[in-house]
Every structure is written in C-alpha cells, then in structure tokens.
Specification:
Shape: globular
CATH architecture of the largest domain: 3-Layer(aba) Sandwich
CATH superfamily of the largest domain: HAD superfamily/HAD-like
Order of helices and strands: EHHHHHEHEEHEHEHE
Number of helices: 9
CATH topology of the largest domain: Rossmann fold
Number of strands: 7
Number of domains: 2
Structural class: alpha/beta
C-alpha cells in the first residue's frame, strides 16, 4: 500500500492553524493581547523566512495550555474549529484526499503544529494518521514542554522514520505534499514530492528538481 503524506498548514487548509490559534487566544483574551500578538506574528515571519527557533516558539505556543482545564480546552477547540478553521477548508484538498483514498493509499498528515490544535482538523479531513508536535501532559494538565522530537524540518523525517518502524510503508513509494521550504528534508526523502501553492523558496527548488507544482486554491 502506498503512503500519501500531507503537510497541513497552507497545504490542505488555506491558512496556518498554529498562527490562527494564537490569534484566537488573543481574541478570547486568554493571553496578553498586545504582547502575545506581537510575538505570535514575529514567530510566524521567522517560520516563513526559514529562520524559526522551534524550541523558543514551542516554549511560547505551548505555555497557554498549562493554564486551561480539560473542559476549557475542549470548548475552545470546538469553537476554534467551527469559526476559525472551517472557513479555511479547501474543496480541492478534499478531492485530493479522496483520490488517494480511492486508490487505496494510506493517508497521513505530518505537521509542526501541535496535536492539541491539529487533532480535530485531521479528524475532520478523515485521514488515517496524524503525526504532529506533541505537547507533554502529566496526566492532569499540559506542562508547557514538548514530548519527544518536534515535528519540524528534519524532525519530520525523524518522526516519520519512527512511525515507519511500526508501519509497513516505504518512502520511495510515498507521496508528500507541502507548501513550505521548511519541508525540503522530507520532500527530498520521498519518491513522489509535490509542491502545493509553494512559497518562493520551495517553488524555485521544485522547478530546479522538476517536481510537480499544483494549486489547491485556484
């Protein structure tokens, strides 16, 4: 069975769920509005530029979870999904997922965004598996720390290889769709890399390597 792997943010959805979650927290007055928005935007620009310090970002992004009960977080996720993510869903992304599913492929989302935010999105998209950055939980609350390897840049390759140890798939038979140059390590590792509405750096790399370039927005 072939493996079809998809980045999430700005690939299967028309926006960045991690950045929007930060905006949502600001909107709900759960964090300091001015300070948090400024830092959230700074980290997002660094991500786009390929200069993100992933550990510094995760220290920032996971801290609000430590102050929320399970009930509060559940309600917030439901509201976020309905009001902030649903409008970003793409018909062409749903068609792409359906085409791979009909071909008998195993569908996997791999994303740097944490599972707390992306779990409901992956469920809504109907994929078989989700590999995401994992927020540490002590059995009562989130600690604000990362559990394991962040699912970012080379970390995506590491996490995928760990998953492949328990799942019978081969990268040379696998597809990977992404918009971001941050995903070049994984794009270079699969047999069928596809650039989706790529950023300028990835677009240049894809043209140089003669990878397919597609749009799920136009």
């Amino acid at each position: 069975m072939s493996l079809a792997i998809f980045d999430l943010d700005n690939t299967l959805i028309a926006g960045d769920s991690d950045h929007r979650w930060g905006e949502f927290l600001v909107h709900k007055n759960i964090v300091d509005p001015e300070l948090y928005k400024t830092r959230n935007d700074e980290f997002y620009r660094a991500y786009q530029a390929g200069t993100l310090d992933i550990q510094a970002y995760l220290d920032f992004a996971l801290e609000p979870f430590t102050r929320l009960s399970a009930e509060e977080l559940s309600a917030l996720r439901e509201e976020f999904m309905a009001d902030w993510i649903q409008p970003l869903m793409l018909d062409k992304a749903a068609e792409l997922l359906r085409s791979h599913r009909e071909r008998g492929h195993h569908l996997l989302i791999i994303t740097a965004t944490n599972r707390v935010v992306t779990g409901p999105i992956a469920e809504r998209l109907g994929v078989d598996e989700l590999l995401a950055t994992e927020a540490e939980h002590d059995g009562h609350r989130y600690t604000g720390k990362v559990a394991g390897t962040p699912c970012f840049r080379e970390g995506k390759v590491t996490r995928l290889h760990q998953w492949l140890e328990q799942n019978p798939h081969r990268l040379e038979h696998s597809y990977f769709y992404s918009d971001s140059a941050n995903d070049l390590p994984l794009l270079e590792a699969v047999g069928y890399p596809i650039a989706v509405d790529p950023d300028p750096t990835l677009e240049a790399a894809a043209r140089e390597r003669r990878w397919p370039i597609i749009s799920l927005r136009s």
